[in-house]
Amino acid sequence: MRRKIDPEARLNAADVLERFVAGNAGKWLFDDLTSEPGHDPLVDEVRREAILVRERFPPTEAEHYCSEAGLARILELAASLRASIDRGEDKASG
Q: How far is Cα 94 from Cα 89, in angstroms, rounded to an integer?
């Protein structure tokens, strides 16, 4: 069964990612996003990619999630979620 596109879930996930990078996502929002599979195929793809950011872009400072390049990648993921809404796409770009 194919999961359907959920624009609201995409906007919420993009907001969480952007707030995480800005440092104001709250203690559990990013963890909730990365821990729970989404019902929207793109949100789920971005969730999996966000988990891998820490491994692909290791932190250069103690207690950080990832490097600056990793934070930039997280913002790219958020942008792909927002851009996909108008296009109605199932796959992340970038």
A: 13
Q: What is the pTM of this model?
A: 0.87
Supply the pLDDT for residue 4. Answer: 77
For the chain, the structural domain boundaries read 7-87
Rounded to whole angstroms, the Cα distance separating 69 from 74 reads 9
DSSP H helices in 6-40: 7-22, 29-35
**Of 55, 39, 56, 45, nearest in space to 17 by CA:** 45
Q: What's the pLDDT at 82?
A: 95
Mean predicted confidence (pLDDT) in 51-72: 95
